[in-house]
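Hmm, what's this shape?
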Amino acid sequence: MRRSSEENKEVLILDTAGLFAIQSLTSSQEIYTVPEAIEEVVDEESRDKLGLVIASGRIRITQPSQENIRYIKEIAKEIGVEEALSDTDTKILALAYQLQRNGYKTTIVSDDSFIHRVARILGIGSVSIKYRMSGRSRLRYYICPVCGYRSLKRFDICPICRTKIKR
């Protein structure tokens, strides 16, 4: 059981975009992420900087429970964005939801509009690093002009017929 002094403690949950900005975060809030977000940082310079932050103990890397992951997948399916959320996105949301249920005031730091959309439904705070996220985001489908493949995620080459998609 957690002590009452931890009730409503504010925490930040970072996805990969948030991890790139971590050095500019001056907040004294606890910072969390999932291992998959760490793995998405691939360039050597960024990995070195992130390694220093991890070594300093400034960030907690943890997995959400399977129960919370399943719940996030259900919500995403209900609102029609399940295919747009990666496994990392789902786990970021599940971790934020889990911490929220444990009495923390959670805020997700992400540039992913689908994360913001699901977070809003769950009553979880979210902020963007680079882009302004409006409260009225619309679903955008990307459609291959040759075979008709549709996706909520932007793609340059159709995964079905390999046609190049024009921007």
Observations:
- The mean pLDDT is 83.
- Residues 140-167 form one domain.
